[in-house]
Amino acid sequence: MVTLQINGQSQTIDATPDTPLLWALRDFLGLTGTKFGCGIAQCGACTVHMDGKAVRSCLLTIGSVGNRAITTIEAVGNTPNGAKVQKAWLDIEVVQCGYCQSGQIMSATALLNKTPHPQDADIDAAMAGNLCRCGTYTRIRQAIKNAAKA
Amino acid sequence: MIQNISTRRTFLKGSAAATATLSGGLMIGFAIPAGAQQTPKPTPYVLKPNAFIHIDADGKVAFQIPQEEMGQGVYTSLSQLLADELDVAFDQVTPLPAPPDDMIYGSPQRHRQSTGGSTSIRNFYTALRQVGASGRAMMVEAAARQWGVKPETLRTENGMVIDDAHGGRKLSYGALAPAAAKLDAPQNPTLKTDAQLKYIGKPMHRLDSPSKVNGSAQYGIDVRMDGLKVATLAASPVVGGKVDHVDDSKLKAMPGVQLVVLDDIVAVVATNFWAAKKGLDVVKITWDGGPNGHLDSKTLMAELRATAAKKGVTAAESGDADKALGKPGGPTRLDATYQVPFLAHAPMEPQNFTVHVKKDGTCEMWGGSQVQTTAWRAAATVLNIPPEKVTFHNFMLGGGFGRRLDVDMVVKATRIAQKVDGPVKVIWTREEDMQQDMYRPAYRNVMAATLTKDGMIDGWMHRIAGASVSARMSGKPPKDGLDKGSVDAATDNYYNAPNFRVEYIQAEPRAVNVGFWRGVAPNNTIFAIESLMDELAKKAGRDPVAFRLAHLDKTPRLKNALQIAARNAKWGEKMGPRIGKGVCAQWAFGTYIATICEAEVDTNGEVHVRKVHSVIDAGRIVNPDTLMAQVQGGITFGLTAALWGNITVEKGRVQQANFNNYRLMRINEAPDIQVEIVKSTEAPGGIGEPGCTAGPPSLVNAIAAATGVRLRELPIDRALLAGKSSV
Amino acid sequence: MTARNIIVGLACIAIIVLAAMAWIVLGPGPMAFAPGSTVAIASAGSDPSGVPKELAGGDVIKRGEYLAHAADCLACHTGKDAQAYAGGFAFNLPMIGTIYSTNITPDKETGIGNYTDAQFLAAVHRGKRQDGQNLYPAMPYASYTYMTDADALAIKAYLFTLPAVHAPARANRLNFPFNQRALLTAWNMFFSPDTRFAVNAAQSPEWNRGAYLSEALGHCGECHTPRNLMYALDNRQKFAGALTAGWRAYNISADAKAGLGAWSDASLTSYLATGHAEGHGGAAGPMGEASDNSLTYLTAGDIHAMVVYLRSVPAAASNLPHVITVPAPASFREGVTAGLDKRGEKLFAGACASCHDWTGKGQLTTFATLTGARSVNDPSAVNVAQTVMNGIDRKTAAGNVFMPSFGNAYTNAEIAQLANYVTARFGPEGAHLTEKGVQSLRDQAAQR
What does the alpha-carbon distance between residue B621 and residue B687 come to, in Å, rounded to a whole number? Predict the structure, then answer.
């Protein structure tokens, strides 16, 4: 049994402490917006926020999270930057297959939380860990800039 | 028209209950005989609006989309076709995945449900407009009968039938639907004129995007239901290999897991993925690789080279190529061989399928497939039951790229599900996904061309050696030795060589399963053609763009696109050291696209793609924004392959496993990609593949411009580029 | 020049050469640094050999298993993708060639199934094969020679319970004259002590146990002590660190800057027991294997004894700068990045920052913390490059420690750029690895 603070709620999960947060979210809590892509923190599809910072949930064990606040794609729209990013994504139609986009949006929101007016280099540094096989990168870059202006 | 839309609308949000009612509501459309395994003979396309259009009393509209949504935007673009002609407000539309049914949802041309080869718009552009128009006519007819007026006196607007002659009285489609659904569907409805179109040709916002930015979109991997178990598997790492021995002593210490051992598969079933994965990790499996267990890439490529040296069967011929080409070593003759490697699809959503083999002899399955009917029948075949006993809930794909044109993931999941009590979701690890792919075949292109005194192409020979994906899928060798799918685009002679021959020779790799991959055959043939065109231009002493333009008088749409692209990319401008521009002009998938890539090669030989300009003439366009997105994405996909893509084999086993050794382009490696669309009223072309096939040749030609080094094999070899500069 | 001058000159040269040889040949033994006189175990009051008292009641096979772990036979006697103890591991020695380890499963034809006890002891203590030929000192018999007969034979008893694997030895690939085994007879005369462990009565029982574990069984010096011109261990620089098989074995002497001097007992205990210590990073490569195959099997008492012993080894300076113990700044824009190759930063952003963060503090697990790790504080970046290329895949009691390997998809230039960036950002001094340097590291560690 591990208790976590997820999207503002305390959740007790009947899983071993070595269970990655990703699978606790998906298989135990039904929060399937956070995606499994690689399992080795190379693709970013599983990105969530831990105390506002983007982290890969596929290698983050629930036993190590403690009381730190976890936010997932399902709730990031409740934050000002999350909502801005989601809107910017919709405005210029970033999404294709969409599978990586939960993670992209979480990383982009964390970037804006830290750097409200990111330049290209900031976007590169914050977003390079998020792969998109459909190749939506041109639009991700533009959408982040638009969200920063919104 | 069928009602009960409100529950259907929840589908995108992922209610399992809603999916369960989905196919039930559509059973009226099922007309497939149980044994209908083969593709039905083409018959005239019958418009069945009832099977595609659902309107509830509130006027909410749902469309059954016959093609699979895998990011290319068909939920939206096909909805545009239907909604425009049906004349409903676009914000009232919800797209739904159609159930498996070749006769109703298969392409009008082949009566087969398959989303691949950039065919959705090409196949359905007219058909779905007609379906929509037919549905609209049914609404009008129903209103006319209710009011007792002639239908010609009525008009429609945004889901309402309006009678201007009687004070503009209105009836909503929602109110008319029950009566309209009972009418015969008109088979020759009048389509809108171009001027009347409201959605077609407009950058309508995607209907699937909202659910994809808030995490509510459901892919196959997201399926949840009571009693669901989760499994992960290890299949024989060698094609044709078998399980030799399994030591599960450590697994026995883990509670609540089930071991499934099949001929060539070991799986662990648990209540969640992590438990299954941990379980599989402690199972020691010894594989018997069988005859393929000793093969390596060196041998496979040597075999491909040997086959490519032989003469192939003629796929296309005009003039006298042999005479024009003369002997090797002739003064105007250029011989070149181009080779591309095996490639993995690597969609972001790893393969998965959920299957419930029930005790009453039926089966239910959940997952995403590019071939809905084939997937559905595959499960039935494994279980040896008629397909109508199988219910298939189709889902959007987290990437297809051709991987889900195969149904091996369905077969494996069903085989495992046979051993499991209750529904089981079989999720492949990324490593399994990478190493159990159906790979883009390695191809070798043996080419020769000669020039006239004026520097124009005289003779042209292009021999393509490689595996036939169709043969692997069907289990039958290609007819007369010619796999037309492998020579696509090469046979079109769009540069109009007067003495022209294309050959194909089948070269099946042992130990590697091959499959369709984004760009299909042209991702090889265009690379070869456009590389050779650059080499010929150099031999002729001409600028690569000018040389191509000189050969495109009979392909004016491509010529036009190339001229615009050259202008947009400032072709000919002075570049810095080790920076070059490369061009690709291609006609494939019914689309003309000219692409200019700018790349820099550093002193280590590392390649940085700086900018890409593409100009595309895809005929009539349904959604220009989606088209641009597809070209941007396709180019990225193609560049990724050119820069890094390479699947290799050792001891019969694929060596690459995850993104650490099968690299995908990252945002800080991705160029800015600008796309311009040529306005056209020609028939629509495909848009999913063309960008992909344009990426590699334009990059390789840019590298040649930057370094003077001509790369004839992919992926690019940095060692050949280190320290090289063309200036 | 007169004949006399020539003779005097030659004599001088001869004296210098002889003196140099004597300096090498007469080097101290591995435990000579410790004051005090030694007595044979039999005459000593306590016996530092054997298994810890918790296991003393077990049968010879159980004891042998513990000792085999402590002596870490497995790491070198198992080749890539091969069965355990069946041999085939490659030792790549620059200029010399490649030596492959042999099969020590009880297979009678290709393993040691026909070895008598005496033959086994001859191999372990003196480097003699069953056929009387010399083993290459890649087999650490110069260390194992300190093992008692009883312990060596317990290991044999354990090995004989393993499944026999038919695995003929791979032919060594050695350049002349190193392919002449007979030459080793001369080497053995000088460098094979052929002596058993003797108790230092001036030292505590813990120290003696630690010495036995570290020298006779664990053979730490084989990697951590530099070698002289004759390829023997140079105990004048005991535990000063060395490059072995393309990996840097770090200074584990008491040196405060480069060695263990600044480590707390708790850190050292943690590192030995688990392969990881907070603030010091974790074991990878050969030390990761030593940790997983050997050290993690030792009892807490034995780990403590090793700590006591290691602490006693005098400081041997090595030319390493101080260790940076504070994290790098949170932004990629800050920190030691000015003038650095942007390509390294680009690679780090894509493939590394997800786990290691721009600060170097592990985001997902402390195992991923780079801050304070010796690898990033070593300006040669040898172990950074090796770890990037080979990854880490360790199964520990604390869970799996995993890092993907990037060597198969990233070029030598990229590995060099990345290693140079990482050492500059997280260590005191950026490395200057080159494409060629990375290739050399690949060659030295290659298993082929």
Answer: 10
Per-residue model confidence as pLDDT tens digits over B482-536? 999 999 999 999 999 999 999 999 999 999 999 999 999 999 999 999 999 999 9
Query: C305-308: long-range contacts at Cβ-Cβ below 8 A with a sequence spacing of 24 or more?
Result: C305/C206, C305/C207, C305/C209, C305/C210, C305/C213, C306/C210, C306/C213, C306/C214, C306/C218, C306/C272, C307/C210, C307/C265, C307/C268, C307/C269, C307/C272, C308/C204, C308/C206, C308/C207, C308/C210
Q: In 3D, which of A57, A140, A144, A75 has the Cα closest to residue A109?
A: A144
Q: CB–CB of B606 and C413 under 8 A? A: yes
Q: Are strands B607-617 and B313-318 parallel, antiparallel or unpaired?
A: unpaired
* Architecture of the domain made up of B220-290+351-427: 2-Layer Sandwich (3.30)
**A70: containing domain:** 2-75
Instruction: Tell me what percent of the residues of chain C surpass a pLDDT of 90.
Output: 79
- Quick count: other Cβ atoms within 10 Å of Cβ C53? 9
Whether the predicted interface score ipTM is above 0.90 = yes
Residues of C in contact with A128 (CB under 8 A): 346, 349-350, 353
Q: Is A116 exposed, middle or buried (0-12, 13-18, 19+ CB in 10 A)?
A: exposed
Q: Which amino acid is at B25?
A: G
Which of A40, A72, A141 is the closest to B215 by Cβ? A72
With CB atoms and an 8 Å threshold, state whether A121 touches C333.
yes
The ranges assigned to domains in chain B are 5-213, 220-290+351-427, 298-343+439-721
Count of domains forming chain A: 2
Residue B604 and residue C411: Cβ atoms within 8 Å? yes
Indicate yes or no: pTM above 0.90.
Answer: yes
Contact flag A73-B214 (C-beta cutoff 8 Å): yes
Q: Which range among B363-367, C3-7, C249-253, C418-422 shows the weakest confidence by mean pLDDT?
A: C3-7
Query: Over pLDDT 90: what percentage of chain B?
Result: 92
Residues of B whose CB is below 8 A from A142: none
Token duo for residue B543: 């600028």
B266 forms bridges with which residues in the sheet? B234, B261
CA-to-CA separations, C32 to C36, C198, C334, C424, in angstroms, rounded: 9, 11, 49, 39
**Residue A7 sits in the same domain as residue A40:** yes
Q: Is C343–B606 a contact, with Cβ atoms under 8 angstroms apart?
A: yes
Chain centroid offset of residue A59 CA: 14
B594, B612 Cβ separation under 8 angstroms: no
Chain C's closest residue to A131, CA to CA, is C350
CATH of span B298-343+439-721: 3.30.365.10
> Contact at 8 Å (CB) between B573 and B705?
no
Element (H, E) at B157: strand B155-157
In angstroms, rounded to a whole number, what is the distance separating the alpha carbons of residues B696 and B578?
Answer: 18
Residues C174-219 have pLDDT tens digits of 998 888 988 899 899 889 999 999 999 999 999 999 999 999 999 9
Q: Per CATH, which fold does B5-213 belong to? A: Aldehyde Oxidoreductase; domain 4 (3.30.365)
β-strand B284-288 against B242-247: which pairing, if any? antiparallel
Q: Are residues A124 and A85 in the same domain?
A: yes
